[in-house]
Design goal:
mainly alpha, 3 domains, three-stranded antiparallel sheet, 13 helices, DNA recombination, Tyrosine-type recombinase/integrase, DNA binding, DNA integration
């Protein structure tokens, strides 16, 4: 019988071939296998799965339930070849994730973040340039952090002025047009990057000081440092504004502009939804209900007798 490690490799390969996004499973399930090994088990058991999913006191109930769900999917696959493997029951851990209230950066705060990023020290100066470019792109495109960092040089066409997202959520690809000012900034970044690395050490568009693909860990660490520096979070705060909030800000700014310009928002909302890579228009409409100013504009539109459709 195949080992658990071999079975996990096959499971991840199969799920990806079916179009599923498996990055979280690839990151967490090897840790679960290591946990099984530490407990001397060569089979998946519900008891050990539950212990692993809840072992950290810092994990939220929702995160523990999410981890157990990942194990359950792999356990079903494993049970087909190992009758002794157990599949953790649904509902063993029950917790619904609370959707975080977004932090909406002001224009001033975005400018302060970019100014602080531009001052980051490094031997070649590339650290600062990559940080400014990363934060700037998140702000003006609303793309997900993972999508940004997965960009290769070939995905950024500065001749046509567009970015191709090839690794979107649920495997969806899309094109994002770039404003002329964004194209200019990206050309400057490419020139600076290529002066540091004339021979590309990686296909990645965003490159670290060491010549590797810019990592989520590195970008998030830099962002926390900059957030504390400009006062967005306290020196010891463990929580605060997130990189993902740039995405919320982008969506809200588009919707605010449409309402102020008396655009038929409901008619054009699917366009914004497609741009953001949402599966359902309702996911985009959530930004309206989450933002008081947007909600007020929508109510004003309704009071004026203009149509306002509420998406399910």
């Amino acid at each position: 019988m195949k080992t658990l490690a071999h079975a996990l490799e096959e499971y991840l390969t199969l799920r990806r071939a079916l179009g599923f996004w498996m990055d979280e499973a690839q990151r967490l399930l090897p840790r679960f296998l290591a946990f099984l090994e530490q407990h001397g088990s060569v089979h998946i058991t519900s008891e050990l799965a539950l212990q692993w999913a809840t072992q950290s006191p810092t994990l939220s109930p929702a995160e523990g339930a999410r981890r157990l769900t990942l194990v359950r999917g792999f356990a079903r696959f494993r049970a087909a070849m190992d009758p002794q493997s157990q599949v953790p029951a649904i509902g063993l851990l029950s917790a619904r994730a609370q959707r975080a209230i977004p932090y909406l950066y002001t224009e001033t705060e975005v400018a302060q973040l970019l100014e602080a990023a531009a001052q980051l020290p490094s031997p070649t100066g590339l650290r600062a340039q990559s940080a400014v470019t990363a934060l700037g792109l998140l702000s003006v495109t609303g793309m997900r952090v993972g999508e940004l960092l997965a960009l290769d040089d070939a995905d950024v066409d500065l001749t046509l002025g567009e970015v191709t997202i090839r690794h979107g959520k649920f495997g969806k690809a899309r094109l994002l047009p770039l404003h002329a000012t964004t194209q200019k900034a990206l050309r400057a970044y490419v020139a600076a990057r290529d002066r540091v690395f004339p021979i590309a050490p990686t296909p990645s568009f965003l490159v670290s000081e060491q010549g590797t693909r810019l990592s989520q860990w590195s970008l998030r660490r830099t962002f926390v440092q900059l957030s504390r520096q400009i006062g967005l979070r306290g020196a010891t705060d463990r929580h605060g504004p997130r990189l993902h909030d740039f995405r919320h800000r982008f969506a809200v700014e588009v919707l605010l502009r449409w309402y102020r310009e008396e655009v038929d928002v409901e008619r054009h909302l699917p366009e914004l939804s497609t741009y953001l890579g949402h599966v359902k228009v309702a996911d985009t409409f959530w930004y309206l209900s989450a933002t008081p100013e947007l909600l007020q504009l929508a109510l004003d539109r309704l009071e004026q007798g203009l149509p306002l459709q509420v998406w399910p």
